[in-house]
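Chapter summary example: a protein plus zinc ion.
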Amino acid sequence: MKTFWTALLFMTLLVSCGTLSRKQETTTVKTSINQERYTNDTTKPKLVVGIVVDQMRYDYLTRFYNRYGEGGFKRLMNDGFNLTNNHYNFVPTYTAPGHASIYTGTSPMNNGIIGNNWFDKFENRSIYNASDDTVEPVGTTNAEGKMSPRRLLTTTVTDELELHTQGRSKVIGISIKDRGAILPAGHAADAAYWYRGGGEGTFISSTFYINELPQWVKDYNASNPSQPYMREWNTLYPLSTYTASGTDLNDFEKAPRGKETATFPYDLPALQDENGGYSLLKATPYGNSLVADFAIAALKNEQMGMNAIPDFLAISFSSTDYVGHQYGVNAVELEDTYLRLDLELERLLNALDHQVGNDNYTVFLTADHGAVNNPAYLQSQGIAAGYFENDALEQFLTAQLKIKYNNEKIIKKISNSQVFLDYEQLEMAQLKSEDVQRFLSSLLTNYKSIDKVFTREALTNSNFTNGVGALIQNGFHHKRSGDVVYVLEPGVISYSRTGSTHGSSQSYDTHVPLLFYGAGINNGTSAQRTHIIDIAPTISSLLGISFPNGATGNPILPVLK
Ligand SMILES: [Zn+2]
């Protein structure tokens, strides 16, 4: 019997060795911690906290300013450095490319994250940026755990920190969305955790990072953390005080399933069955509360920022995006979500003061993209805006290609405003790709609501230095992107008539907050234009580490002491 147990133990060891995550492999060869190398410079933080607020337009800092408390957004704005003219320098402005560019210091042209989903020419199917069939879920059996940063082609500032400290830094990414946790945490992180809704309401990971949840996460999940938030959502303050938003009842918002109007109060327990169980919490301010709870728990249990080797906590608040999509830029629901997020930020900053000390950590806060005002609302105000039908465009182009080339299969896919050509069809029909690109370009340019068109040929052979062309080029990955890219007119979106979306090159999508605060950061404000790709080089400079390997941005010098 003893032999049996010994053999079993041996086999278990063998199996677990075979599946060790990269981080655990390197941890075993770590020697005793040599802190001296990192303690010489007192301006260097012990902890960097990156905060991304999903779908936060720049003007949410100013529109709700008078409603914020002193300890959240205002503390970062008034005691830190506020860059008021910070923009995305590429399209498409979506969550995955946004998070990737913040942390890699470069655009999709180099980091390869060209969308949330895109048509993968090599796999001949549409793929999701973080999906990975080679890894297993951790903390759930659901496929939502089969995620990793494998499609991210360049290093993140978090990767460079791990490389610099021989893996001694603790790097953790946390978000409701998997991509909001994974892309910031990068490839070499200790862990990334994201939210599993449905019947679970817990934080999960994948074997890319860890083989098993740490005990504190198991305990956290076992405490049923989502249940206390399954309660009524009413406005934080009297409804009549929400004067920075439209009326609560209007035609531009989408009510949750099972509720007639998108108006307060929201009885979440009564709505949960029809709205995906705990997934309902994602589109309420309570999703952000859950992320703050979990981030503070990670800070404490992982002892982050407690020694001179810098750690990195990457937090992404996703509920702002879900609320924005459902209710729109101008909704009371959105204002209430930001007022409550302000309180969560205050709670997080207080926890950092308490554990790490006010002078010992650095925070940056930005967003992965902005959002457009609901076009139907804009139209009601006499402003040019509208809706675009993708299916109608595809039918039109296919019909025109049939007339011109007698072939209906030339277009393989239209994805993220890009037309992907079928190269096998082109070869069989002995057509030159450039000729078809030019033909499609002329059709698209004259199509209703399309503003500008760029062909692969133009994007490959010329260098656009400014304007929309530069944004398109920065978002264009030569291997992964399509063959003709089109841009819709301002205020025109391909979306439902309720709520808001994003993805364009217009300033409502590119203009986002950028705040730095804490150790090594000057106090000030600047309206000089900065770009999202400057964040990672700024943090690299602060930490004295290498820039991410594909970085094309520059450190924002006035920010740094
Ligand atoms: Zn979104």
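Key point: The longest helix spans residues 332-355.
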